[in-house]
Amino acid sequence: MKRRQFLTAGGLGLAATTIAAPAVAQSMPDIKWRYAASWPKSLDTLYGGCEYFCKRVAEITDNHFQIQPFAAGEIVPGLQVLDAVSNGTIEMGNTALYYYWGKNPAFTFGTALPFGLNTRQHISWLLWGGGQDMVNDLLKEQNVIGIPTGSTGAQMGGWFRKEIKSMDDLKGLKFRVGGFAGTIIAKVGGVPQQIVAGDIYPALEKGTIDAAEWVGPYDDEKLGFVKVAKYYYYPGWWEGTGQGHNIMNLDKWNTLPKHYQAAVESASRDTFTWVTGKYDAVNPPALKRLLVAGAILKPFPQEVLEGCYTAANEIYADLAKTNPHFGKMYASLTAYRADSLAWMQVAELSFDSFMMRMRTRT
Amino acid sequence: MKRRQFLTAGGLGLAATTIAAPAVAQSMPDIKWRYAASWPKSLDTLYGGCEYFCKRVAEITDNHFQIQPFAAGEIVPGLQVLDAVSNGTIEMGNTALYYYWGKNPAFTFGTALPFGLNTRQHISWLLWGGGQDMVNDLLKEQNVIGIPTGSTGAQMGGWFRKEIKSMDDLKGLKFRVGGFAGTIIAKVGGVPQQIVAGDIYPALEKGTIDAAEWVGPYDDEKLGFVKVAKYYYYPGWWEGTGQGHNIMNLDKWNTLPKHYQAAVESASRDTFTWVTGKYDAVNPPALKRLLVAGAILKPFPQEVLEGCYTAANEIYADLAKTNPHFGKMYASLTAYRADSLAWMQVAELSFDSFMMRMRTRT
């Protein structure tokens, strides 16, 4: 109905032109879309980014294009956002594409490849390295188009009830972990668990699971994990970044006037700076509070990182052979990564590490 | 004239309403602005970002708001963009605010404080740490408002004809360096030089200067420095980031319809991902080419970094006492930085440095 309304009022049909319809209707048709997020409202950076995006699109279209956000479960369950957009139940959504790795493991490239790219590398690869075009080739099979909307930054490795000293400590470990990373945990002998946010704390408290990762200090703090699992490991090697995406149903997208499409594109990229900038601002004080609350910060031992890295690369090599989307994206990402790391370790790393050294001195 | 045109066609005057002017004119007035950049076209990431911004604003306003970009010197000299916007000669510009540190040293906070923040920290501090509001308090004295538009990333320390082994090697060193950093170079005994892009190469070739910094591999390569000064030092501690800004004359800004203001805001932040993403994509292959061409990569010795860091902090302490803008921004930035570095060295640094170690192994 909305689509029909648009075609009548704002399309290029001769009828509308010849009867001299108000010009505003041609240029700025009133359109309302529904926008389902994979995030509960408590993830106020990711969900807040969705609200910010809607506000911005309304502002730049003089309130003619109204996109209404819904939190996970309000109209669509959080993990079914892609399906709902794909079949046109809703016009658009905001999600982490790696939730859909069961449809195709290549979806993980949209959010984070374990041992993949950091935040700046990932958005650069998406926009300039051909990454987003390849993600959209994959999304097209779902009748969907996507635009990145911001990152959590490098995530934490999660909360563990016991210390992890060697690869042996991963054997049989019941670990709540999101997305594609579970396949790597399984390969090294762990038992990946898919548990929704609200159920993680009681499972960790009872010992039904041994460990759980969520996001980073700011989001983790709200779920209270520090009370039941004190060892807080880093880095979350499966998420050197955690990229969100706006996804639009292609049929609905194609009915939008070009300048509304441009408004969505621009507001999405605008949201990238909002979300990423907010995470970078709210995580540091949250980490301080968690340390006061008793969190014990631990780096994963080098042996564990290397063991998981090797396991991940074996999985990738197999997938690259059998899955054309995965193979193409993996070749592109690893070529980008090799050059990028060589550069990042020159000016970026030396600046950051000098500043880190000076911090503890004054 | 343009302003008058807008007021007639799109203002809230009763006349326009009562004679039932085409509604499109009310909602989407035709406006043309001139937009002067501080960049030559050869800085195709910074100037390219300006072109991208204009294209995006045109797209999202259905071509009703046309902003025309001009390269440095076409209508305004590169270092006079703020003046031209301030006095209304042009409606807006794109520049590095630290060029204007002679008006007030606090302008350096808009672009980069030496030994200040990296790229993610700086945009986060601007948007979430109150930084941009404070920069705008300063810009308001020039009748200007600003929005960040993207960063070069951490810059290189520049091209040196001789090795720098100790602080003594900085004594008397004639060093082409941009912005506020020259005051620190002078304090440690160097002789900062302000030289425009086209004159750097011959000065370095003849030995009129001993060293020159510009941006990073991609931009430096085009000026050919590797042929006349082989030592390529890092990091450019005076620019852990290099932020560009859109700046608008406040009177002109206030005549814009709200949704055109929103279009400029959103397209500016959109441009942030374009510019920063492009630098991160084009610098790595440029670094490889420079190494093939004979560049000898050298880190500044720890003694040199620490000596300059101490000198910088002394300058900042003095300025903070006498300059309210500087004092307020410095207190805010250093508080943000202390917490941010403590967090960044956990997940971000450990992820990046693990990936860097693995790169050289495979």
Automatic annotation (TrEMBL), chains A, B:
<dbReference type="GO" id="GO:0031317">
    <property type="term" value="C:tripartite ATP-independent periplasmic transporter complex"/>
</dbReference>
<feature type="binding site">
    <location>
        <position position="239"/>
    </location>
    <ligand>
        <name>substrate</name>
    </ligand>
</feature>
<dbReference type="InterPro" id="IPR038404">
    <property type="entry name" value="TRAP_DctP_sf"/>
</dbReference>
<feature type="binding site">
    <location>
        <position position="176"/>
    </location>
    <ligand>
        <name>substrate</name>
    </ligand>
</feature>
<dbReference type="InterPro" id="IPR026289">
    <property type="entry name" value="SBP_TakP-like"/>
</dbReference>
<dbReference type="InterPro" id="IPR018389">
    <property type="entry name" value="DctP_fam"/>
</dbReference>
<keyword id="KW-0732">Signal</keyword>
<protein>
    <submittedName>
        <fullName>ABC transporter substrate-binding protein</fullName>
    </submittedName>
</protein>
<feature type="binding site">
    <location>
        <position position="155"/>
    </location>
    <ligand>
        <name>substrate</name>
    </ligand>
</feature>
<dbReference type="GO" id="GO:0055085">
    <property type="term" value="P:transmembrane transport"/>
</dbReference>
<feature type="binding site">
    <location>
        <position position="213"/>
    </location>
    <ligand>
        <name>substrate</name>
    </ligand>
</feature>
<feature type="binding site">
    <location>
        <position position="214"/>
    </location>
    <ligand>
        <name>Na(+)</name>
    </ligand>
</feature>
<dbReference type="Pfam" id="PF03480">
    <property type="entry name" value="DctP"/>
</dbReference>
<feature type="signal peptide">
    <location>
        <begin position="1"/>
        <end position="25"/>
    </location>
</feature>
<dbReference type="GO" id="GO:0046872">
    <property type="term" value="F:metal ion binding"/>
</dbReference>
<keyword id="KW-0479">Metal-binding</keyword>
